[in-house]
């Protein structure tokens, strides 16, 4: 009887973690779009988010250090600037352009266009030899490309400037996630824990995005009545409060992804991401009033088919050819979290190990 009970506990835990991930992922998309309606400084907003993520990551690292009794990794300046800087700059540009695009396009067009990031991730994975070429990848590229064309074809709410921003963000996102995978796979760096990765990335991301912020928003923000030329304290506090909520959501998104991967698997996160896109589109059409034609919906379905095929291929080849990436034990102290230790594993570790040996290791992949 232990196995069915433990299986039920695992299923409930997985559903809870997926919903936790959906809350932050979908929440920050709609929140940033809502905020951009009255606050037209997306790059400044991103800088505030990066600052909050860095502070929360530092607090989380300190909590983990107190819990495990082991010091957290701190990279030297030479390694930090040489190894981490390219990933940080690519990540900053990806996030900055994505937030910037909300000034011009709808959530639905953003969601569907951003799904093309799989193309660029796949491309750079082949360039860096993280992915083995196979004929099915051509079908993946064709499905996503054709689907993206149908998504934007005769769209009633299409905006070229915003579309180019998202497409550029997707391209840079391909570089970002490829470099992130390389960064986290290097055992000598010790950044396998995403909390440590987030902590080290934020300062360089801030510095990388700051010149672009000064060039585009510096002057207009300095004369804005929402911040620097505010006439009432309540207006200033409200602006800071709304920006801070976005920063907390951004940190929660990264943290929820970490929880989902470390407690289940990277495949669970990939599949959850596909359904998340569908949920986002449905909410955008019903809540935000976005308009999509049947052709746009069909194009998005074709895109999802390509993404699903890509996920299936990665799963198939990882099982039949052996893992090509560095493996981390899910029971490793690096991945143990105080919040989960008392709930997810109370009174059932030995039965879980006997029932399911596949949870012994989780593969870190890019999404």
UniProtKB/TrEMBL annotation:
InterPro entries: Sugar_P_trans_dom, TPT_transporter. The chain crosses the membrane at residues 12-32, 38-59, 80-97, 103-124, 136-156, 162-179, 199-216, 236-255, 267-289, 295-317. It is a multi-pass membrane protein. It is found in: Membrane. Keywords: Membrane, Transmembrane, Transmembrane helix. Signal peptide: none annotated. Residues 347-367 are annotated as: Disordered. Residues 351-367 have a biased composition (Acidic residues). CDD domains: TPT_S35C2. Residues 16-309 form the Sugar phosphate transporter domain. The keyword Glycoprotein does not apply. One of its GO terms (cellular component) is membrane. PANTHER family: SOLUTE CARRIER FAMILY 35. This is Solute carrier family 35 member C2. It comes from Myripristis murdjan. The gene is SLC35C2.
């Amino acid at each position: 009887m232990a196995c069915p009970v433990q299986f039920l506990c695992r299923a409930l835990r997985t559903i809870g973690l997926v919903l936790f991930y959906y809350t932050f992922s979908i929440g920050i998309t709609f929140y940033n779009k809502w905020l951009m309606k009255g606050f037209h400084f997306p790059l400044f907003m991103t800088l505030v988010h990066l600052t909050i993520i860095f502070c929360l990551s530092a607090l989380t690292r300190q909590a983990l250090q107190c819990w495990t009794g082991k010091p957290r990794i701190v990279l030297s300046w030479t390694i930090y600037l040489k190894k981490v800087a390219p990933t940080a700059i690519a990540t900053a540009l990806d996030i900055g352009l994505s937030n910037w695009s909300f000034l011009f396009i709808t959530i639905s067009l953003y969601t569907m266009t951003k799904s093309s990031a799989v193309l660029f991730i796949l491309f750079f994975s082949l360039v860096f030899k993280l992915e083995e070429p196979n004929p099915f990848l051509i079908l993946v590229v064709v499905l996503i490309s054709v689907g993206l064309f149908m998504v934007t074809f005769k769209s009633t709410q299409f905006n070229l400037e915003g579309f180019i921003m998202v497409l550029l963000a997707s391209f840079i996102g391909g570089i970002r996630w490829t470099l992130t995978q390389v960064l986290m796979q290097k055992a000598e760096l010790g950044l396998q824990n995403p909390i440590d990765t987030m902590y080290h990335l934020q300062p360089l991301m801030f510095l990388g995005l700051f010149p672009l912020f000064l060039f585009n928003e510096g002057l207009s923000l300095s004369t804005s009545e929402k911040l620097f030329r505010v006439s009432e304290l309540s207006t200033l506090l409200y602006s800071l409060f709304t920006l801070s909520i976005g920063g907390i959501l951004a940190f929660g998104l990264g943290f929820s992804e970490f929880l989902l991967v470390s407690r289940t698997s990277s495949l669970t996160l990939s599949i959850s991401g596909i359904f998340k896109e569908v949920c986002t589109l449905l909410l955008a059409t019903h809540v935000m009033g976005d308009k999509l034609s049947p052709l746009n919906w069909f194009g998005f379905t074709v895109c999802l088919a390509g993404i699903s095929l890509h996920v299936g291929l990665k799963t198939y080849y990882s099982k039949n050819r052996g893992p090509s990436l560095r493996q981390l034990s899910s029971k490793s102290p690096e991945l143990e979290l105080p919040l989960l230790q008392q709930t997810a594993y109370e009174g059932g570790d030995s039965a879980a190990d006997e029932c399911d040996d596949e949870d012994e290791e989780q593969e870190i992949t890019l999404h």
